[in-house]
Design goal:
The chain is α+β, with helices and mostly antiparallel strands. It is built from 50 helices and 61 strands. The chain has a five-stranded antiparallel β-sheet with strand order 26-1-33-32-31, with no helix packed on it. A hairpin with a 3-residue loop joins β11 (119-124) and β12 (128-136). The longest helix has 26 residues, at 1355-1380. It is extended.
C-alpha cells in the first residue's frame, strides 16, 4: 500500500500565483516562479518538505516575472530568466541571487543546460541565442551569440548515449522491476547514498552541441565551438514543438504542431535523417510536454483523454487503459480508508499491485466528461511510473508492472491512481526527496502542489500493532480486540510503538502519545475468547469493545528520518546523527559518528540493542537498556568484514545482542543477493546465498533475488524472517509474443543460525500481491495485506497458535532441530506435546532422514492405525529396499513426489508404476512402463483403458485394450451391449482370439456358414474341421487337417474316422495329432503290428512301453527290446536281450548308458562284453560310465591297448573321486602307459597325480630333450632338476652350448653343488686331455672351487683341488715363458715338475712336450732327444695327439742322426688310456651323485680330479 501526500506550496506572498516550476534532477530542491499584483514576479526555492529555503533573499521584480527556470544537472545551481531579459543565478550556500550580464533585451523564453552543465544556452523572444560557459560560481562567460531573428520554440542539447556509470545506475534501478507497492520496492527500495550523486557523469565528456527550433520550422545545429548551421527547414510542414533525445542511440524524436511524430537519425555533424514518421489524430495541436520517454517507448497525448504508447523498436502502438481495476478486498480496504478521511483533506492513496485497485473517492465517468483533455506527461524511470495531468485537475498515474505475465503489452501498464487537485494542470514533473523517494511537482493555473509517495506505515509488537489509515490517522489495535484511532496534527512519515507509548513524526516534528496498559484477561474472558474462536459465539467487534485509551503527551520539533522506541526513550535518526529523546521531548543523548565513519545513515532497534551504520561503511551496535548507551564492539568497517563491499542497506541486531543480520551492496553499489549474519563476538561471518539455494532446490531459477526486509524474533535470538523478491523470467505463453516477460515473485524465508556457523532454512512462505513482511513474532509471521494486519502461523504452529511460552519454546526447538536434521533432539523436544501438526512434521522429516523407527511412533501419535500397519509390514518385508520402505511412509503422509523420487532411487519401477496408477497419473505410469517397467506394461494398458472406459472414451479404451494383447475378453465386454458396434469392429480387426470368439458367438446362433467364414479368417482350423464334419464335408475337412497340421483338427477328424470305421485314416490322424495312445489302442484292437511299430517308434515313452509289452506278448522280442530300450526301461531291455541273445541291440543299449545309470546294469554289460572277449568295448563302457578302477584292471589283465582318447576317458576329474583314489588311478594309468611305451602320456598322468619325479623318469625314458628341459623348468623341483642335468650330461654337451647352459642351470637350481663341481672337473679334464687348454681348465677348476666352497663336507676335496689349481697355474706360467723365449726357465720348471709323481689331470707327457720344445729352441739337441725318448715312453700316441710338431721332431732326428720315420711312427699308436679315463670319470660321477656318505664323496672327487 502506498500513500501520496500532497502539500500545497505556500509562497511568502499569500496572494501570489504560480507561473512556472522546476525540480532539481538529483537534489531534493525545486523552484517555483510566482507573480503577485502587489509585489510583482518572484522566484522561490523550496526543500523537499515544501518549505522555502531559509537564509535566501529571493529576487523580486515589481514589473517583471520569471519566464524560464532551469537547474544545473549536477550542482545546486538555479538559473532564472526574466521578462525584461535579465538572468539571475543562485548557488547553494549563497544568500543572494547573482545577476549575469546578458545581451538580451527581450523576455528570456528558453534557458537550458547541457548534459553535465558545462554550457548554458539562453534565448529571448527576439530570436537571440547566447551560449555561456559555466566553469565556477558566478563564472558565466559568453561563448557565442547568434541572432536567428525568429522566435525559438525549443532547445535540445545533444546527449551522450547512456554513459557507463549512468547505465550502471539505470541497471541498478532496473534490478528493482516495478512490482507490489513502491516505485522501486519490487525488489528493493534502496538507492545508493554513498556515491550515487558523485558518479553521475564521472569519466563522461560533456557535449555542448544542441539543436534550436524556431517558430517558422527552421532547425539549427550549434556545434561544440558555437558555430551555427541550418540543418532542416520544414517549409510547408508545421514547426517542431518538442524534441527528445533517444535514450539508446544517436537519434531524436520530434513532435510537430500538427501531432506528427518523427524519428530522425543524428549524424556526427548534426545532419538529421528521417527514419520514421507517424501522424497522430487528435483534437488541437501539439504542445510542449505532449511526448515523453517511458522506458524504451514513447508516451504521447493528442489533445484528448487518451495516452498512446509507441514502441519504436517493435513498431507497435497501443492505448493505456483508463479504467481502474476492481477488487473486493482492495476495494473494501480503500473504502475504509476513504471513510476515515475527511473530504476536505487532500490525501490520495494508490495501490501498486497489478491485481486490483480502487479509488477512495467517487470515480468519475471519463467517457462522459466534456472538454477534459490531457495537458502534460511525466515519467519516472526509477519507478516506471507515468503520470498525466488533465485540464480539469485530475492526475492519472500508471505503473508498468512486472509482477505477472502479460498477454499484450498494454496489460503491463496498470492505472493505479486518479488524484484530483484544484485547477487545471499545466505541467507535472518528477523529483526526489532526501531519501531518494519519488516526488511529484504539479503546477496548476494558480497553485503548485507537491505529492510525496510513501509506503503505508505499520508497526507490530506481540500485544499491540498500529496501521496508518490516512495521512494523519493511525489505527491502534490490541491483541484482546480493543482498538482506537489516533489523529495526529500532521501527515505522519515515521512511526514507532511499544506497550507504553506511540510516537509519530512528519520529518520535522515528533508527537508522543501515552497508552493505557491493558490488563491481563481473566479466565472467564479467555474462555469467552476461545468460544468465539470455536464459533460458539459471535466475535466481539471493534465497535462494541472498549476502545484503547491514548493520550497526547508532547509535540516537539525535531528533524526525523526514522523512529524507534525503547521503554520511554525515543531514538530519532536525523540527517547525520541519532538523537535520544524522552517521551516528553527532553534530549537525553546524542549518538554521533566520527569523521572517519561518516554520518549515520541508518539505524534499527531490536529489543534493547541498537544497530547503526554510517555513510562511510561502518557498523556498530549499542546496548540501550542502561541510562547511557553502551557500545557492544568497536565500530567495524564493512571493507574489513566483506570481500566485496560498497554500502550497508539493512543492519539489524538479534534479541541476544550477539549477531547482526546485514544486507549490503557490492563495490559497484549493486545489492547482493544474499543475507549475511555476523557473529561479532567471535568475528564469524556466514551467509545465505539466495541464487545458490534456488539453484540447488531444482525449482524455477530467478534471474535475480534480493532481500527486502528482515526481522529478528523478539524472543528467539536464532530465528529471523526475511522477505525476498525475485525477478523471474519466462517466455510468454502466447505465440504472438515470444519475447521474454519479466515478473516478480515474493516470499518469506524463515532462517536460523546454528552453532556450526551457518544460516539454515526453516521454512518458506509464499506471499500474495500487496503483502509485505511486518514482523516475526513466534508462532506467527506478521504481514501487512494492503492496510490490514494478518498472521500466518509457522508450519509447526498450525494448530498451536494459542499456546503458553513453554510450549512455544518446545515447538520452536523442535522446528530448529528438524531443520538441522537432529531427529533425536527433535523427538525429545515434543514428547509431551499432543499436536498432530508437530507429529506430522516429524514424520515427514523421517522421510528425509530414513528414521522409520521414529516414524512408527509419530504415526501412532497421529492415531493412523492403517498407516502404522502398512509401515510395519514394509519394515518386516526383507525384499524391500530401504528407500522403498521409506516411500511407503511418504505415501501414507501424502508426500507423493518424495515417494516417486525414493522409488526411482532404488529402481523399484514396479512399485512406482503402482503408485502412479493409484493416484490417477496413468499417462506418467504408461511412460514409465514403456521405458522401465515393461513387465507390467500390459496391466498398465489395461488400467488406462479402464479409465477411458469410465470416462466414456470408447475409442481410446479400444486402442489400449488392443495393446493389452488380450482383447477378446476386454473388448467383448466393452462392446457386448452394442452388437452393431461389435460387428463393425470385428470386421476391421484381425485378432485371431477375437475372431474365434465372434465365430463361436455366430455358431451359437446356428449360422454355420457364417461361422465357418469367420473361423477361416481367424485361421481356426479345429473349428473349421468340426463344422465341416458336422455338415458331412469330410473330404474338405480332411484337406484342411492335412494342410494345416493342426493337432486339434487332426484329433477331431481322427475320432470321426474311428467312429465310421476307417481305422487306417484314424491311426494316421491320431498320429498327426500326437495322441499316440489312441492310435496304439486301435492297432492293438485290430492287431496292426506294422502300424503299431510305426506309431510306437514316434510315440511317448509310456506308449512305447505299452507297445513293447504287446510285442513281448506276441513273441516279437526284437521290437520289444528296442521299444523297452527307447522307453528307458533298460533293465527290462537287457533281460530280454540276454534271454534272446541279441548282442547288436546290447551294444546299442550300452552306448546309451551314462554315469548316472544303474551300476549293476553297467557291470552286467561289461561282463557280457568280457564273456564274448570284447575287452576293448568293456573298457570303453566302463570308462564312459566312470567305472575307472575296473576298466584299468581289465586293461592290465587283458592287455588292452590304451589310446590317447581312452587315456583321457580313464582320467578322473577333480572332485569326481576322493583324492587318494584319484591319485591311485592316475598312477596306475601312468604305469600302464609306461609299460606300453607311451612315455609322454605316462608323464602327463604322473604329473596329474602330482608325482613329478616319476613323471620325469618316464620322460627321461622317452629321450625327448626339449620336453625334458621344458618339464624341468615347469616342475621347479630339486630332484627333477638334478635328474634332468644328469640326463643332459650324458649328451654331447661339448658341441651344444645350450645344453651346457641348461646343465649348469639345473644343477644350480637343484642346489647339487657336488654334482656341479664334478661336472666342472670333467670339463677341466676334457680341456686338458683333448685340447691341452690349461687356461679353460683353470677356469672350470675355479668354478668347481666355488661350488665346493658351498659344501661343508668337501674340505679335503677342496684342498686337493687347490693344489691341482696351483699345478695348472705353474704349467700356464711355463707356457707363457715358452712363448716369451725364456727357455732355461722352462727347462728348469719342467724338470722340477717331472720329479713329482704324475697326478691327474696334469700329464707328464704335456710337460715333456714343452721340455722338448724348450731344448730344441735352446739347441740342446742331445737332451732334447733324451726328453723325446721319455715322452715316447710316457705316451705312445704323442705324435698322433699333436704334442710335438713334425718340424721339431725332424730337427732332433737330423741333429742326433736318428731315423725320423721310425721315431715319428712310434708315437702314432692308439691306446685305450683316454677312453678308460673317461669311463672312470663317468663311473665316478655316478657314484658321487648317488652316494650319501661324505667321506666316499671326498674320495671319489679326489680320484676324478687327480
Amino acid at each position: 500500500m502506498t500513500l501520496y501526500f500532497d502539500t500545497k506550496i505556500e509562497f511568502l506572498d499569500s496572494d501570489a500565483v504560480s507561473t512556472i516550476s522546476s525540480w532539481h534532477p538529483s537534489e531534493p530542491l525545486f523552484a517555483v516562479a510566482s507573480f503577485s499584483p502587489e509585489r510583482g514576479g518572484s522566484v522561490t526555492i523550496f526543500a523537499d518538505t515544501g518549505e522555502p529555503q531559509r537564509d535566501v533573499t529571493y529576487p523580486v521584480h515589481a514589473s517583471s516575472q520569471a519566464t524560464a527556470l532551469c537547474w544545473h544537472p549536477e550542482k545546486a545551481l538555479l538559473a532564472s530568466g526574466w521578462e525584461h531579459g535579465d538572468i539571475h543565478v543562485w548557488f547553494a550556500g549563497h544568500r543572494e541571487f547573482a545577476s549575469v550580464n546578458a545581451p538580451h533585451k527581450a523576455a528570456i523564453v528558453l534557458l537550458q543546460f547541457s548534459e553535465q552543465g558545462g554550457r548554458m544556452v539562453t534565448a529571448d523572444a527576439m530570436g537571440l541565442v547566447t551560449g555561456w560557459r559555466c566553469d565556477g560560481q558566478y563564472q558565466f562567460l559568453t561563448m557565442f551569440s547568434h541572432d536567428l531573428r525568429e522566435v525559438l520554440l525549443l532547445i535540445c542539447f545533444r546527449r551522450t548515449v547512456e554513459s557507463e556509470v549512468r547505465e550502471e545506475m539505470a541497471n541498478l534501478a532496473k534490478a528493482a522491476v516495478a512490482g507490489d507497492e513502491n516505485a522501486l520496492d519490487t525488489l528493493t527500495n534502496w538507492r545508493p547514498r554513498t556515491a550515487a550523486r558523485s558518479m553521475t557523469h564521472s569519466g563522461v565528456r560533456d557535449n555542448h552541441c544542441f539543436y534550436a527550433c524556431t517558430q517558422g520550422g527552421v532547425v539549427y545545429y550549434i556545434n561544440q565551438g558555437g558555430a551555427c548551421v541550418e540543418v532542416m527547414k520544414c517549409g510547408s510542414l508545421p514547426p517542431i514543438v518538442q524534441m527528445l533525445w533517444h535514450p539508446k542511440k544517436d537519434a531524436v524524436i520530434c513532435l510537430m504542431e500538427d501531432l506528427t511524430v518523427t524519428l530522425f537519425l543524428v549524424e556526427s555533424t548534426g545532419i538529421l535523417t528521417e527514419l520514421d514518421r507517424v501522424k497522430m489524430s487528435g483534437r488541437g495541436g501539439g504542445r510542449q510536454g505532449g511526448i515523453t520517454w517511458s522506458g524504451n517507448s514513447l508516451a504521447i497525448i493528442t489533445g484528448d483523454l487518451f495516452v498512446r504508447i509507441w514502441d519504436i523498436e517493435r513498431s507497435d502502438n497501443y492505448l493505456l487503459k483508463m479504467d481502474l481495476p476492481s477488487g473486493n478486498q482492495l476495494g473494501a480496504s480503500l473504502t475504509s480508508l476513504s471513510n476515515g478521511t475527511m473530504s476536505s483533506s487532500n490525501q490520495f492513496f494508490s495501490h501498486d499491485s497489478s491485481e486490483s485497485s480502487s479509488v477512495p473517492r467517487k470515480t468519475p465517468k471519463y467517457g462522459q466528461m466534456n472538454g477534459e483533455i490531457f495537458t502534460c506527461l511525466a515519467y519516472s524511470s526509477t519507478g516506471q511510473t507515468l503520470c498525466a495531468g488533465t485540464s480539469q485537475g485530475n492526475l492519472f498515474t500508471w505503473k508498468r508492472s512486472g509482477s505477472r505475465l502479460v498477454s499484450a503489452p498494454e496489460d503491463a501498464w496498470q492505472l493505479t491512481n486518479i488524484s484530483s487537485v484544484r485547477g487545471a494542470i499545466r505541467s507535472c514533473e518528477w523529483g526526489f526527496n532526501e531519501l531518494a523517494k519519488p516526488c511529484m511537482l504539479v503546477n496548476c493555473l494558480s497553485n503548485v502542489f507537491m505529492l510525496k509517495e510513501q509506503p503505508l506505515l505499520a508497526v507490530h509488537t506481540r500485544e499491540l500493532w498500529a496501521v496508518q489509515r490516512s495521512a494523519k490517522s493511525v489505527q491502534l489495535t490490541h491483541c484482546s480486540g480493543r482498538e482506537t484511532t489516533v489523529q495526529s496534527e500532521f501527515a505522519a512519515t515515521a512511526l514507532a510503538l511499544n506497550e507504553l507509548s506511540l510516537v509519530m513524526s512528519n520529518g520535522r516534528s515528533i508527537s508522543s502519545y501515552s497508552l493505557q496498559k491493558v490488563l491481563e484477561k481473566s479466565p472467564d474472558e479467555f474462555d469467552e475468547i476461545l468460544e468465539n474462536v470455536e464459533g460458539a459465539a459471535p466475535p466481539t467487534t471493534a465497535s462494541t469493545a472498549t476502545p484503547l485509551s491514548v493520550k497526547l503527551l508532547q509535540t516537539f520539533p525535531a528533524e526525523c528520518l526514522s523512529l524507534d522506541l525503547y521503554n520511554q526513550n525515543i531514538f530519532c535518526l536525523a540527517s547525520s546523527d541519532i538523537m535520544v529523546y524522552s517521551v516528553g521531548g527532553v534530549v537525553l543523548h546524542r549518538i554521533q559518528a566520527s569523521d572517519i565513519e561518516g554520518k549515520i545513515i541508518g539505524m534499527d532497534l531490536s529489543g534493547c540493542y541498537l544497530s547503526v551504520f554510517t555513510m562511510n561503511g561502518y557498523v556498530k551496535a549499542y546496548d540501550v537498556s542502561r541510562h547511557d548507551p553502551k557500545l557492544l564492539f568497536p565500530s567495524k568497517s564493512g571493507h574489513d568484514i566483506f570481500d566485496d563491499f560498497g554500502e550497508f542497506i539493512l543492519v539489524k541486531c538479534n534479541s541476544l545482542g550477539s549477531h547482526l543480520a546485514m544486507v549490503i551492496a557490492n563495490s559497484h553499489f549493486t545489492p547482493i543477493s544474499a543475507l549475511f549474519c555476523w557473529d561479532f563476538e567471535r568475528n564469524n561471518l556466514f551467509d545465505y546465498d539466495l541464487l545458490e539455494q534456488e539453484a540447488s532446490s531444482k525449482k524455477e531459477i530467478s534471474s535475480s533475488s534480493l532481500p527486502v526486509r528482515i526481522f529478528w524474533d523478539a524472543e528467539e535470538p536464532r530465528l529471523l524472517a526475511m522477505e525476498v523478491k525475485s525477478m523471474m523470467q519466462k517466455s510468454a505463453p502466447q505465440k504472438n509474443s515470444p519475447q521474454p516477460v519479466h515478473f516478480v515473485q515474493s516470499k518469506i524465508l524463515l532462517l536460523f543460525y546454528s552453532e556450526k556457523g551457518s544460516l539454515n532454512l526453516l521454512e518458506a512462505q509464499p506471499m500474495s500481491p500487496g503483502s509485505q513482511l511486518l514482523n516475526l513474532c513466534v508462532p506467527n509471521v506478521i504481514r501487512l495485506k494492503i492496510n490490514a494486519m494478518e498472521e500466518q502461523p509457522l508450519q509447526d504452529f498450525a494448530d498451536l497458535q494459542q499456546c503458553d511460552p513453554v510450549t512455544r519454546k518446545q515447538v520452536l526447538n523442535f522446528s530448529l532441530y528438524v531443520a538441522e536434521g537432529n531427529m533425536d533432539m527433535a523427538y525429545r523436544s515434543i514428547r509431551s506435546i499432543q499436536s498432530k501438526v508437530i507429529w506430522t512434521n516429524l514424520a515427514k522429516m523421517c522421510v528425509h532422514t530414513n528414521r522409520l523407527d521414529v516414524a512408527k511412533v509419530c504415526m501412532g501419535h497421529l492415531e493412523q492405525a492403517r498407516s502404522v500397519r502398512a509401515l510395519r509390514q514394509a519394515i518386516e518385508d526383507d525384499d524391500l529396499e530401504t528407500e522403498a520402505k521409506v516411500a511407503v511412509l511418504a505415501i501414507e503422509l501424502g508426500m507423493i513426489e518424495e515417494a516417486k523420487d525414493l522409488y526411482r532411487r532404488c529402481k523399484r519401477f514396479d512399485l512406482l508404476n503402482k503408485l502412479l496408477q493409484s493416484i490417477g497419473h496413468l499417462d506418467e505410469a504408461l511412460q514409465l512402463a514403456e521405458t522401465e517397467d515393461r513387465i507390467h506394461l500390459k496391466h498398465t494398458y489395461y488400467q488406462k483403458a479402464q479409465e477411458l472406459r469410465e470416462r466414456g472414451d470408447i475409442k481410446g479404451a479400444l486402442e489400449f485394450f488392443e495393446k493389452t494383447q488380450n482383447p477378446a475378453q476386454n473388448i467383448t465386454q466393452l462392446l457386448l451391449e452394442n452388437p452393431a458396434a461389435m460387428k463393425r469392429y470385428i470386421q476391421t480387426t484381425s485378432d485371431p482370439k477375437l475372431l474365434k470368439w465372434w465365430g463361436q458367438y455366430i455358431e451359437s446362433s446356428g449360422d454355420m456358414d457364417a461361422a465357418l467364414a469367420v473361423y477361416h479368417k481367424a485361421e481356426d482350423w479345429f473349428s473349421q474341421v468340426k463344422i465341416l464334419c458336422y455338415l458331412g464335408k469330410i473330404s474338405k475337412a480332411d484337406a484342411i487337417a492335412r494342410q494345416s497340421g493342426d493337432r486339434a483338427a487332426c484329433y477331431h477328424l481322427a475320432r470321426h474316422y474311428e467312429n465310421v470305421g476307417k481305422f487306417q485314416e484314424a491311426i494316421m490322424f491320431f498320429t498327426r495329432a500326437q495322441t499316440f495312445s489312441n492310435a496304439i489302442r486301435i492297432c492293438k484292437e485290430n492287431d496292426f503290428q506294422e502300424e503299431l511299430w510305426t506309431v510306437a517308434s514316434s510315440s511317448r515313452q509310456r506308449d512305447k512301453a505299452i507297445a513293447a509289452a504287446y510285442f513281448e506278448e506276441c513273441g516279437n522280442f526284437k521290437h520289444a527290446v528296442e521299444l523297452y530300450h527307447r522307453a528307458g526301461m533298460l533293465h527290462k531291455a537287457l533281460e530280454m536281450a540276454f534271454e534272446s541273445q541279441q548282442p547288436e541291440i546290447l551294444e546299442i543299449i550300452a552306448s546309451d548308458l551314462v554315469p548316472e545309470s544303474d551300476a549293476e546294469l553297467i557291470n552286467r554289460c561289461a561282463d557280457f562284453f568280457c564273456s564274448i572277449e570284447q575287452f576293448q568295448k568293456a573298457v570303453h563302457l566302463l570308462a564312459k560310465t566312470r567305472h575307472l578302477e575296473r576298466a584299468l584292471s581289465i586293461c592290465l589283465e587283458k592287455g588292452v591297448p590304451v589310446t590317447e582318447e581312452l587315456a583321457e576317458m580313464l582320467t578322473p576329474e577333480k572332485g569326481e573321486f576322493e583324492e587318494g583314489t584319484r591319485i591311485h588311478i592316475l598312477v596306475q594309468l601312468g604305469e600302464l602307459l609306461q609299460q606300453q611305451g607311451d612315455y609322454h602320456s605316462a608323464t602327463k598322468k604322473f604329473t596329474q597325480a602330482g608325482d613329478k619325479i616319476r613323471a620325469m623318469k618316464s620322460l627321461l625314458k622317452s629321450g625327448n630333450t626339449d620336453k625334458i628341459i621344458f618339464f624341468a623348468n615347469m616342475s621347479r623341483q630339486r630332484e627333477v632338476y638334478i635328474m634332468a642335468a644328469n640326463y643332459l650330461q650324458a649328451l654331447d654337451w661339448q658341441s651344444d652350448a645350450q645344453v651346457l647352459k641348461h646343465i649348469v642351470t639345473f644343477y644350480t637350481k637343484g642346489q647339487a653343488f657336488d654334482s656341479l663341481a664334478n661336472f666342472y672337473a670333467i670339463c677341466a679334464q676334457i680341456e686338458i686331455e683333448e685340447f691341452q687348454d690349461y687356461g679353460k681348465a683353470l677356469t672350470a677348476m675355479q668354478e668347481a672351487s666355488k661350488c665346493l666352497e658351498k659344501l661343508s663336507h668337501a674340505q679335503h676335496v677342496y684342498n686337493n683341488l687347490q693344489r691341482t689349481v696351483a699345478d695348472v697355474k705353474a704349467i700356464l706360467e711355463i707356457q707363457q715363458a715358452l712363448r716369451e723365449g725364456d727357455h732355461q726357465m722352462v727347462i728348469g720348471s719342467c724338470r722340477s715338475m717331472l720329479i713329482k709323481p704324475e697326478l691327474p689331470p696334469i700329464r707328464h707327457a704335456h710337460i715333456l712336450s714343452m721340455l722338448v720344445r724348450a731344448l730344441v729352441y735352446a739347441k740342446d739337441y742331445s737332451e732334447a732327444g733324451k726328453a723325446l725318448k721319455q715322452l715316447a715312453v710316457k705316451d705312445s700316441s704323442w705324435s698322433a695327439s699333436g704334442l710335438l710338431d713334425r718340424a721339431i721332431v725332424h730337427k732332433i732326428a737330423q741333429e742326433c742322426d736318428l731315423d725320423f720315420d721310425l721315431i715319428w711312427n712310434s708315437g702314432r699308436q692308439v691306446t685305450a688310456s683316454t677312453s678308460g679315463t673317461a669311463a672312470t670319470g663317468m663311473s665316478s660321477t655316478s657314484a658321487m651323485t648317488t652316494s650319501e656318505d661324505d667321506e666316499a664323496d671326498d674320495e671319489e672327487i679326489t680320484e676324478e680330479l687327480h
